[in-house]
Design brief:
The structure holds 2 protein chains of 2 kinds. By secondary structure, chain A is an alpha/beta fold. Chain A contains 5 helices and 5 strands; from the N terminus they run βαβαβαβαβα. In chain A, 40% of the residues are buried. Chain B is an alpha+beta fold. Chain B has 20 helices and 22 strands. A 6-stranded mixed sheet of chain B has the order 14-18-19-17-16-15. A 5-stranded mixed sheet of chain B has the order 6-8-9-11-10. In chain B, a hairpin with a 2-residue loop joins strand 18 and strand 19. The longest helix of chain B is centred in the first third of the chain and has 27 residues, at 4-30. Chain B starts with a helix and ends with a helix. The model of chain B is unreliable at 122-151, 238-250 and 441-450 (pLDDT under 50).
């Protein structure tokens, strides 16, 4: 069965891009969220296999949402999406339990490599 | 478990550790409070102990353990005394002898003399008790036992990796990898540490020791999922055996797994290419055929490049012994000499490096014996110049006096007084390379070993290289070796002579020029021409090869080359371009012909011989 993915990003452009890359590779996008708060709510609702989580977002940041999700489900697989220059935030997220990260601008093969690595 | 297959690797690696230890000891001697240096020494001794114990070489393990113990005490003290350095160097020497014993399949020699030598620093007296602590796994009694150990044994695995230059957020990437490895076993050591990584910045290297039950293959394939990793080494320490090695004559090369992977992927592409060409040929589709051939050319070039990589080793593998050598020579001759090494990370073909080891030692000896007076600096530096590597041994000592060299050469009957007079200073310096020439008035313990500069020069030229000497009185002497990167594949100048092509290694060619007939003069019987305000003798290749000499044309094609330190102009019929060729040895008995440096097959199937001009001219004499 295809793995189920939740995309959390405040930019529609980024969500669409990720959706295209991932669904093109056979993953099912079960939901999208435009901020951290919505992201953590949808996670509980949908229980996806993977969350791609932007870092800088309104309402709750990606790191806050990550912590909330992991507090409720320690097994959650969350991959951070970062831009260049956000290394320290990425490392903070990794220390808090994120499994991996992808760097914008997204390149399909890199995104897919990371996703395959974390959910097999 | 059959350990014999690990023996060659053990010999190589243990030898490298010993070299590093000796170099490090010399370094620590200069800065006795160098804690990181002492730590490094301790780690080297520790590695040697572990490897030797695993292989079942008990005396070597015992000695390494003893040195490790001493070093541990110095580590706690934070410094090493000068006597202790001597003692430890003695220990390293003995370890090297033990390694020779092992290599020669002899029984390891006794440690008694060394351990009872009385010079041992009081801090490091080995007791029977701590010797018994060497962690040696018990040896299976019979071969049947060898496979029956516990299936999931904790073992240490060392991982070294480097991220690709282009990876964004390298520190974060290393952190991901570190976290991932932590799920596979217990991280014992990480360099940089996690804290250092968390500080961010450009870190691309990661060295980790992990204790795990998982086979190294699994760890390797896990890390293979990270395309960000540009190079990867995963190595488990070897287990032990006392099985004799039947293959000790083989030489081994350690090859990075990333390189092997590239071979495999290239092979895959070649197979695809073959099918493409087959189908194009079947359908007589010349367009596809041409495309396929173009692709084939690229693949072969790539393969060639990668294969050469396997043969490349850093120059440091031969300069590793120099710090110790310089220290000992300086002590013996009561001089203060500092050795500086630059650019030794550059890589050269291993065959070249092997042939260079002795000449390099000789040049450094020379610099200390004849160059440096009381104190000075010997610099060994390497750099890349286009597709050649330059290796230079320089000292800031007395330099050489061309007038004195001329005199000596005349006195020894190597050149005539007239020749001496006509000789330029630069050429006079090259006289030291003539067989039988030595300016040392007394044979010293260090230089007087029968290896003269002539041997050094011959070794360099045999490799297709060139040796240059320059010196300034009172300011020092420089020996510069110009070397090809590889011996197997070289660039040649193709020369036309009587309808046939022959080749000259491009390293031997200083210049190619067309000389107008009216520029050629005669000096006695010798035809000469002026080249950069210098009169060079013209020698005809036809004449050397005993071919008919045609009437001279309006312009003659001349290769300016150097033979025995002297420039000459070699007259050829015409130039036919340059080519990169794979040099093959010519078979016996043709190989006995002097002046023949090998052969090669050109793309069109023609066989071309590579000329060794020096050999040709010597034959003529």
């Amino acid at each position: 069965m295809a793995s189920r993915v939740l995309i959390v990003d405040d930019a529609l452009f980024m969500r669409n891009l990720l959706r295209d890359i991932l669904s093109g590779a056979g993953y099912t996008i079960v939901g999208e969220a435009a901020d951290g708060l919505e992201g953590q709510k949808k996670y509980l609702e949908l229980k996806p296999d993977l969350v791609t989580m932007d870092i800088v977002m309104p309402e709750r940041s990606g790191i806050e949402a990550l912590q909330d999700i992991l507090a409720r489900d320690a097994e959650a697989t969350v991959v951070m999406c970062s831009a260049l220059g956000q290394e320290s935030m990425v490392m903070e997220a990794l220390q808090k339990g994120a499994k991996d990260f992808i760097v914008k601008p997204f390149q399909a093969d890199q995104v897919l490599e990371v996703v395959r690595r974390v959910i097999g | 478990m059959d350990m014999s297959k690990y023996k060659a690797l053990f010999l190589t690696e243990a030898g490298e550790h010993l070299q590093k230890m000796a170099a490090q000891l010399v370094k620590v001697e200069a800065e006795p409070g160098n804690r990181s240096g002492i730590d490094a020494l301790f780690r080297e001794a520790h590695s040697i102990k572990g490897m030797a114990a695993s292989m079942g070489y008990l005396r070597m393990a015992e000695l390494a353990h003893h040195l490790e113990d001493s070093l541990d005490q110095f580590r706690q003290l934070g410094q090493i005394s000068a006597e202790a350095i001597d003692y430890l160097l003695g220990g390293v020497d003995l370890l090297e002898l033990l390694l020779e014993d092992i290599d020669a399949d002899r029984e390891e020699r006794s440690l008694e003399d060394f351990l009872n030598s009385g010079q041992r620093p009081p801090a490091a007296r080995p007791s029977a008790e701590n010797l018994s602590q060497i962690p040696v796994p018990t040896l299976p009694d019979s071969p049947a036992d060898s496979g029956s150990g516990p299936a999931a044994e904790e073992k240490k695995i060392e991982i070294r990796l480097k991220l690709d230059e282009k990876v964004a957020s390298p520190a974060a990437r290393l952190l991901v990898i570190l976290h991932r490895l932590a799920t596979l076993g217990k991280l014992l050591h990480s360099e940089p540490s996690q804290d250092q990584i968390l500080r961010g910045g450009v870190v691309r290297h990661l060295n980790i020791v992990i204790e795990t039950q998982r086979p190294e293959k699994e760890i390797q394939s896990c890390l293979k999922q990270y395309s960000e990793i540009a190079s990867l080494e995963v190595a488990a320490p070897v287990a032990r055996s006392n099985v004799q090695d039947a293959t000790s004559g083989d030489t081994t090369v350690r090859v990075g797994t990333d390189l092997l992977d590239r071979f495999i992927s290239l092979t895959g592409e070649l197979i695809t290419n073959r099918y493409m060409l087959q189908s194009a040929a079947g359908e007589k589709d010349w367009g596809a055929m041409k495309e396929g051939l173009g692709r084939l050319a690229r693949l072969v070039k790539d393969l060639h490049h990668q294969v050469l990589q396997v043969r490349m080793m850093p120059i440091a593998t031969v300069t590793g012994r120099l710090p110790r050598l310089v220290r000992d020579l300086a002590r013996k001759s009561d001089k203060e000499v500092r050795l500086e090494l630059e650019g030794t990370g550059l890589e050269l073909d291993r065959a070249i490096l092997e042939a260079l080891a002795d000449p390099l030692i000789h040049l450094v000896r020379n610099a200390i014996d004849h160059g440096i007076d009381r104190q000075g600096v010997v610099t060994v530096r390497a750099w890349r110049q286009r597709d050649q590597v330059m290796l230079q041994v320089a000292d800031d000592g007395k330099g050489m006096d061309p007038a004195q060299l001329r005199q000596t050469a005349v006195k020894k009957g190597l050149i005539s007084p007239a020749q001496a007079e006509a000789m330029r200073d630069y050429d006079a310096l090259q006289l030291v390379c003539l067989p039988g020439f030595s300016t040392a008035t007394q044979v010293t313990d260090t230089s007087g070993r029968g290896v003269g500069m002539d041997v050094v020069k011959a070794a360099v030229e045999k490799l297709g290289g060139v040796l240059h000497i320059d010196a300034a009185l009172g300011r020092g002497t420089r020996f510069t070796l110009k070397l090809p990167l590889s011996v197997a594949i070289i660039k040649v100048l193709l020369i036309q002579v009587e309808g046939k092509q022959v080749a000259l290694p491009i390293t031997r060619v200083l210049q190619t020029i067309e000389v107008a007939r009216n520029q050629i003069q005669t000096s006695g019987k010798q035809r000469v021409f002026s080249h950069h305000e210098e009169l060079l003798p013209l020698i005809s290749l036809r004449k050397i090869l005993n071919l008919a000499i045609p009437k001279p044309a309006e312009f003659v094609s001349v290769v300016v080359t150097e033979v025995l330190g002297r420039k000459i102009g070699l007259v050829v019929d015409s130039f036919a371009g340059q080519a990169e060729v794979f040099v093959q040895k010519v078979a016996s008995p043709v190989d006995r012909l002097r002046g023949l440096g090998g052969g090669t097959i050109l793309g069109d199937g023609r066989i071309v011989f590579i000329l060794d001009i020096q050999g040709l001219l010597e034959r003529r004499r």
